[in-house]
Design goal:
By secondary structure, the chain is mostly helical. It contains 16 helices and two strands.
């Protein structure tokens, strides 16, 4: 069972908005209607990006990966935050809200400008994080169903305990570095295909399979060659990812809506064969990838969208780390050669009394 501050992820996925969850993770309590309104307003008003950050985004080549652009942009954002050196809890909560807002604006803005498009405006009047993201990305108001689907995806990705990126953030925070540095570390860890980058790899493999009838043969061929099949297995879950039922339901519903039911069929067929052959359960990435694809979102943005959601979780962990900080410094056991002697030195000696002797 996956809980956010004591709330079951299934309840949150069906009843909460991303703004509800952002307040919950950063403040520790589910928001009242007044607090929710405040969070929505803050996320909208804080979304504007500093001009130098957007100027830097324009310097990236057109084929730059969006997660690399995001990592660089977040690192830059810290320099433009007047509260950067204030490490108090309340200041960090305010910075967390700004980070969440600006990462949500940076992803679609950077995607558009690096391809020669105009910088979309921030739509500060739009109270919904998910709607604002889609409007900035596409330059037009999205249909309500897409907003609802993205909201659910963001909720499901918002937090997931001590995964690799969260741990990277906490290690950085434990040195008493700032929250921007911690989130930059997290984004760097998230990029890898064994973590957040898996959802991009999943979409590539689903395209490769093409049809549910091909799933069993495709999977068995991969397993025979001892190749990893993305979207399966998890370090924590042994009987199934708690987030999968909600995301699986989204794939089925969206597939019927946009007349692309084959993605759900491929995922379910692949899930069946991986369970039978390896005893592996699907993780959330298997079903998240086709959901985003059917919304028309480029696959390269899958991991940055993951980051948009997980920023709230990362920041909550950083704030918790700093509340009772202790440097995270794992020990190691040396297994290399025993002590050895350096061969006759070839380096020229010099005398401090006669520096010209070198």
């Amino acid at each position: 069972m996956l809980l956010y501050r004591g709330y079951d992820i299934h309840d949150l996925a069906t009843r909460a908005t991303f703004e509800d969850v952002a307040w919950l993770l950063l403040r520790g309590q589910y928001p009242t209607s007044r607090e929710l309104e405040y969070m929505r307003r803050e996320l909208a008003e804080q979304a504007a990006l500093p001009d130098p950050v957007m100027a830097a985004m324009r310097l990236f080549p057109a084929d730059a990966h969006p997660i690399d652009m995001l990592r660089t942009g977040v690192s830059m954002l810290g320099s433009f935050d007047a509260e950067l050196k204030d490490s108090s809890r309340e200041a960090n909560v305010r910075k967390a809200v700004r980070l969440t807002a600006r990462i949500g604006a940076m992803v679609p803005a950077a995607w558009r400008v690096v391809r020669g498009g105009e910088t979309p405006r921030c739509f500060e009047e739009e109270p919904s994080f998910a709607r604002r993201f889609l409007t900035q990305l596409n330059g037009a108001q999205p249909p309500d169903w897409q907003v609802a689907v993205l909201d659910t995806v963001l909720v499901l990705y918002a937090e997931h305990e001590f995964n690799a990126s969260t741990f990277a953030a906490r290690v950085t925070a434990s040195t008493l570095s700032d929250i921007y540095a911690a989130v930059t570390s997290a984004i760097a860890a998230l990029k890898g295909p064994l973590h957040g980058g898996a959802n991009e790899e999943v979409m590539n493999l689903l395209r490769d399979i093409g049809d549910a009838e091909n799933a069993a043969a495709w999977a068995r061929d991969k397993l025979r060659r001892k190749e990893k099949v993305m979207g399966f297995g998890h370090r924590i879950y042994r009987s199934g990812d708690s987030r999968v039922p909600a995301m699986r339901d989204l794939v089925s519903r969206v597939g019927r809506m946009v007349n692309q039911p084959h993605w759900a069929a491929i995922c379910e067929a692949l899930e069946a064969v991986m369970s039978a052959e390896k005893g592996l359960c699907a993780n959330v990435d298997l079903y998240a990838a086709p959901v985003l694809h059917m919304m028309g979102i480029p696959t390269a943005l899958n991991t940055p969208i993951f980051a948009c959601a997980r920023t709230t979780g990362w920041c909550a962990h950083v704030i918790e780390q700093l509340d009772q900080n202790r440097l995270i410094r794992p020990s190691s056991r040396y297994t290399g050669p025993i002590r050895r002697t350096i061969p006759t030195a070839a380096r020229t000696e010099f005398s401090c009394a006669n520096p010209d002797s070198v």
